[in-house]
Amino acid sequence: MSGGISGGEAGSRQTGVEGRAKRLKKLNRMFTSSTAQSATVAFRQRTWLITNAHGTATMARATDRFQLSAMRCNILQKCGLSEFGTFDICSPASVEFNKGRLLTNTMNLRLWHQELYLGATGTLAHFRDPRLYEYWTKKPLPEIAFVDLGSGTYVRQPRNETLWTMGNKYISASWDIYYLAPTLKSALNLTTLWNYVEDNGPASIFQGYTWSLDTFVDYAWDSLGKLKVVLVVLLVVETLCVQMTCMGLLTLLIRAANAQHMHRFSVFLALPSATLRIMASRQLMVDDDCGAAEDDEELEGLDLGAGGDAGGATTTNGGVGEKTDAEKKNVRMAADVDAGDDEEEGAVRTTKSGKKGSLNARSAAAAAAAKKNKPTTFGGRVYRALFGWLETKVKVNGKKLLPNSTAVLRFMAPLVLWAAAVVVVFGVSFVELANLQGPLSSLNAAAHVTYRVSRVRLAGNKLALSESVADNADYRTQLLDNLATLRQEYTALLYGGRIPPVNPNVTFEAVAPASTFANEEFANLFFKTRSCLREVASNCFPPGHEFYDITHNGLDAMIMRWMDDYTAFAHLPDELAFANHTLYKFINSVGGGDMVEA
């Protein structure tokens, strides 16, 4: 016998492996097909549609990055000027840092801007809310366009454009500025690209995105409200219609089965009461056929004994002998007849009065029985009114056969428990869904604070790197207005309050809950933490540095000092309000690092 494998066996094994491989490939195609994944995709889309948290966060981040990219473009152009070249913010390392951040912001903007309008990567879907689709596609917004006339000259041309188109133009211009900044430096302001970013980013694009953010939150809020109504309808339909119908049907089935079972036993009610008592009390005896022969012999012996007794009943002296059993039975029957004859006359005399008394007795007995069957307690009356029809009673020969209520309860208990569980699940879901609107309001408040911080940084940067004193008044006004709005929204985020919406037509409740007391992690981040909040630990300030304590004492301490320093910086005279001031050092180092990265 050979120890190797023959060619036929090897071929069959190879064929089996190939067959399994084909089946696995077919199964893989089946499970990864669009039809098989449609349920998962639909679940994912509807989940985001319900809360819209992802879209709201993306909208807030894009609003923030549009302001920051405009600030980076302004820094790259201003740092090319000789009067700002000695500032810390314009050092070679700082310039390279701003270039890198501009590239990152531009790439993120391209991703988020397209994702909001066209759908997430791998899908193609427009805004679910028709208001957003109409606004981004057809709503004309003010735009400052620049027509290049050649030889470094251009003409400003105000016109109208949609938010979708302006966003794409802005991203393209920001991308080109990144590559032109090392070459043009201070001459960037002579290009149409830099001027487009400078004029349209902080104006129409910012206004369009903030309007869209409020509308997005309003749509999410309305979706949650509709979902609550759907849950209530489902609860009513499931509990009152489906569950009650099922319980009613099961009750009828159990009642029918119980009635059929009772009718089978009702045959015993047709027997006399004495027979029923005998059947209930008589000991059960087993009859077998083993002693049939012995029984026959005993019967024959009894017959012979009876004949002998009859023959010997007469004595020899002609006297009366002992009476047989038959004679004794005849005597008892005769006595009964005589007694009956004596009582017959009395019975005839009392017939008329007896009938009347019998009727009265039967009426009294019926009234007593009705009174006995009538419930005496309120709960009993209610049960009799609601469920009395369920009680199957069989009456034969004046006897009543009652159903076994325990059997009905035993069969109904699982369905009743299931109905109760359904009500509890729907109730908990409704309460939890109602609680989702609170986090949505907190998310809206956090989004407002995030892009408002960037708005303050943009206005403060323009004031700190202003070339003309004539522009300082406008920059100060913008800075102070944004600081006042930021303080109001930041307080509302921490301790609860109303966030004024940009879109006046929204209907959602713009009152944010107190996030400080709603989430322990939030409270730890803003107040309790004593660690560095930078993404890269090596960039943290070392112990002994002037900013070490403020950056290791929670996010709230940094934000409050940052706003205070910016307020003081806005009130500096024109000759001191520059980026080399000591106030601006904290604003740029901590506000642009630890505070933003946290």
Automatic annotation (TrEMBL):
Residues 303-356 are annotated as: Disordered. Keywords: Membrane, Transmembrane, Transmembrane helix. The chain crosses the membrane at residues 229-254, 407-431. InterPro entries: Tiny_macrocysts_regulators. PANTHER family: GAMETE ENRICHED GENE 10 PROTEIN-RELATED, TINY MACROCYSTS PROTEIN B-RELATED. This is Uncharacterized protein. It comes from Monoraphidium neglectum. The lineage of its organism: Eukaryota, Viridiplantae, Chlorophyta, core chlorophytes, Chlorophyceae.
